[in-house]
Amino acid sequence: MMNTKTLPYLLFTAAIFLASSSVNAQTAKIDTPKTFNKLIGEEGNAHDFDMAPETRLEVVEAAVKSIPTKMPSGPFKPTWESLAANYKVPEWYAGAKFGLCMHWGLYSVPAYHNEWYEKHMYGTKGIMEWHVQHFGEQDKFGYKDFIPMFTQEKFDPNAWAELFKKSGAKFVMPTCQHHDGFSLWDSKVNPYNAKQMGPHRDLIGELCTAVRKQGLKFGFTNHQIENFQFINPPQAMLDKMKAEQADLFDPKWTAFYNVADRSDEACRKFLVNWFERNVELIDNYKPDMLWFDNGVDQRYLDPLKLMVAAYYYNSAKKWGKEVSLNTKKAAYAPSGTNVATIGSILDFEGKVPPGIRTGTWDVDTKIGSSWGYTTGMHVAGPGAVIGNLVDIVSKNGTMMLNLSPMADGTIPQAQQETLLGVGKWLGINGEAIYDTHNWIKFGEDNGPRIRFTVNGDALYAIIVGKWQGGIITIASLADGKAPAGKISSVTMLGSAGSLAFGQDASGLKVTLPATAPCDYAYVLKITGLKMNPPTTTTSGNPIPNYEASLGAN
Q: Residue 489 pairs with which residues in a beta bridge?
């Protein structure tokens, strides 16, 4: 049922949409600068191409007109009005709170610097030199030559899926293709794929089957739109390779690299193929979520993005599934602000809003020091991941933890241990995470680090950090400050029995158990007080002026 606080949002959205439709937003290269509410992470698109193909609306419109795919019938049309009228956030996602994504691809072969190795090996001095030292000159050993080395010979999809289940994650979203454009599925529209080359396996298909057997939702992240202008070598390298018809200019590989031809016609074909790859993924794997990176942000891409959205959502109607797109900034917000996103859940990359943001949103964050696997990478322990998870959920978000598999198909032991540690903690404390929403404030940091969540009529106070024991004081629940009602019980998840407590002007004082029930963070369950209702909206957008209605957090 829609929360009563959703009505103001609907009126707000209608006003913004009418305002934005008074101008042709699709003709603008960038969104109009605005004053944003930084407390809730509001922002618009970057004022540059931000990894998008550097093209024009006319080229995008020509691509849309030449798309051969027949659109599935259904209520969704490729317009913002239709998307706004028919979309709603999947219920399963609003309550999931913890999922996994991963950077899984060719860059794990050199395992050096980061997942942008392809870009750097052709354009960043130190990494260009490192490549020459370890693999040879780029015209003799290019990025394409890593494909046979991406063997995945130890990839066991069932073992991966069992690990993901044990981690406590509710959904899994591997990279189906990164900026390099190499597809990890059996593709008929991209010859550069894992079934035809490298491991000679449909990696996405195998993992999809295994993950769903574990009862988890499955989607994927798609970065391919960045591929068209990802590589920008120095002129001397371009001239040499062009003269030799080598690597970037090898006729067998020019469509893989998209360097030799960046004409309007080449871009049109690229955009058509981007759509076709998405259709293939949607039709073959019926994803529960489809995530796009920054490259789809620009307004001139709107006609193409709307085609993908309509195709995906009408297909899902036929499947009888609740699904969603997941995008950054104002990619699916024609008004230019992410508080008015249409038809997509908002994703923040590696940053958490400083305050409570209502609606539905998520943060994708690394488990280690790089997104893709690199030799010697630092891996965060369970405590750090749990602390981040708790902070995100207390502000009403969902955490997508990024994993970094190796080129042989293994997930490094340190990452596995972290996942198992998180899963063990969630096995005890999951009721304070899953299906929760924000309280009237997200936490306290003046004494012990405390984060709050709400589930039904229970308030959860999550004490993050080393176990101290003794008596803890929660200042937010002091006499005269606490919500209406009277505290009837305080318990600690994982411990038996009720805890002694008292309330005075300094706060709620709780005597903690003699021993800790778990590691890393400890959850007090407090009942008897009147809790605020859920703050979800059908659109996923925040309730306007919500934080002002509650006072400063």
A: 527
Buried-exposed string 290-301: b where 16+ CB fall within 10 A, e elsewhere: bbbbbbbbbbbb
**What's the confidence (pLDDT) of residue 35?**
83
CA distance 231 to 41: 31
What is the predicted pLDDT for the residue at 30? 66
Structure tokens at 36: 């944003």
pTM of structure: 0.94
Return all residues near 514 (Cβ < 8 A) that are at least 6 apart.
469
Q: How many CA atoms lie within 13 A of 102 on its CB side?
A: 30
Q: Which long-range contacts (CB under 8 A, 24 or more apart) does 54-62 make?
A: 54/229, 55/264, 55/267, 55/271, 55/300, 56/264, 56/300, 57/26, 57/27, 57/300, 57/303, 59/264, 59/267, 59/268, 59/271, 60/271, 60/300, 60/301, 60/303, 60/304, 61/303, 62/268
CA distance linking residue 306 with residue 82, whole number of Å: 10
- Which parts of the chain have pLDDT scores under 50? 1-28, 552-553
Q: How far, in Å, CA of 414 to CA of 402, rounded?
A: 14
Domain ranges of the chain: 91-432, 443-533
> CB within 8 A of 58, min separation 6: which ones?
none
pLDDT confidence of residue 516 = 97
Tell me the CB-side half-sphere exposure of residue 247, using CA atoms within 13 A. Answer: 21
Name residue 100's beta-bridge partners.
Answer: 172, 401
Residue pair 139/218 in contact (Cβ under 8 Å)? The answer is no
Closest CA to 282 of 331, 307, 316, 321: 316
455's enclosing H/E stretch is strand 449-455
CATH class of 443-533: mainly beta
State residue 551's pLDDT score.
59
pLDDT at 423 (0 to 100): 98
Hey, is 265 helix, strand or coil? helix
Contact 383, 397 (CB under 8 A): no
Give CATH for domain 91-432.
3.20.20.80
Q: Where are the alpha helices (DSSP H) in 430-543?
A: none
Per-residue confidence (pLDDT) for residue 340, from 0 to 100: 97
